[in-house]
Amino acid sequence: MQRSIFEQLFQKACRYYSYKSVKRPDFTAISKVVSHPVGKEVRPKENVDLTKQLQAKILATGPITIAEYMQEVLINPQSGYYMNRDVFGREGDFITSPEISQIFGELVAIWVLSEWQKIGGPPFQLVELGPGRGTLARDVLKVLSQFKLGSNFSMHLVEISPHLSTLQAQLLCYKHEAADSNTEGYYQKGVTASGIQVYWYSRLEDVPAGFSIVLAHEFFDALPVHKLQMEDGLWKEVLVDIADKQTDETDFRFVLSKNQTPISKIFEPIAGETRQCLEYSIESDRLISLLAGRFEANGGIGLIIDYGHFGEKSDTLRAFKRHELFNPLKSPGTADITVDVDFRQMKRVAERDNKVLCLGPVEQGLFLQRMEGEVRLERLLKNALPENQTTIKSAYEMLTQPEKMGSRFKFFSMFPAVLKDHLQKFPVNGFQ
To answer: How many degrees, rounded to 5, is the angle at CA 214 between CA 213 and CA 219?
Structure first.
């Protein structure tokens, strides 16, 4: 039965939804972009004010944590990397899977539909954390609209960037307006052409309680991390200090704390941890715990898509600028800073109190293959103009080939623990 539900949904989507391909960039010409784990490029922009601000803070209080540094670099209200510009897409600063091919968003939507139907199809909130330009949300909405689900769900976007929230509204809605977050909870609302209500929030906590299907694509990799290093049997923390201009070519430098910091004291490694250096995101822990609590209390499903590992990597902090690796301690605010997601820690936190069950991580290439990505590709190629076929095929290959994005990106899902027997009877698509 589980298989037939998926097949019915997929075949209906293939028959009635978008035979035509949505124009995406020609990625054969920019394959260099994804030679790195995320293929990110940042436009050059001097940001002297943020550099001086951070240096002043360090002079006043001493070296700061990497988490504090990332927080300022990425989401400082005035000069943060994500706050005041469009950094996505070919004309932006980095490429994400939804921007590469419509197949990605379509298959995510089919996954949402199949898993939602298998648990009874209750009214739901479609929540996306960090929606970027709104490309994934748009592709998912297109598929859901084909199944006439407008009366069953509303969309809730968690976005802290005013600039990006405007881009999302322009892409998704035919009208939108600002709202008073102090009284309404959301700071912007809109409605799509098909009548779906869309709301914007600064925090996940502000999204109303209710059965929610939560998507997070390349969201957790940008959360601040603390870098911990074992020394003399104790966890100490790597900090950011002002660079010595006589010896360093960057604005800042890494130093090791002389004593344990509050984070290094409260950090509890997983039993059997062998790494001497690791990255730990307390903000990731907090959000995963929050999601687990919401899923237990109100029901729901979580699908997290990001590049990461299962507890085997130790040093993944890096920055990208102009398609190339860039020193994360130089010209803060002009380059993206990112880390690989530790899915082992994520699973540990999510399942700590037996509130949810986690599946994955599963490599992106394998997930898309299990979701019949090749079938969708063949239908697009069959109905595409000859001059567009190479672009469509190369885009799908970029998503799925192991040496590109196929093995670097992972899919990870969360379900309420009460569904344990149900999930054994009806295995989750893409993960089994």
So the answer is: 165
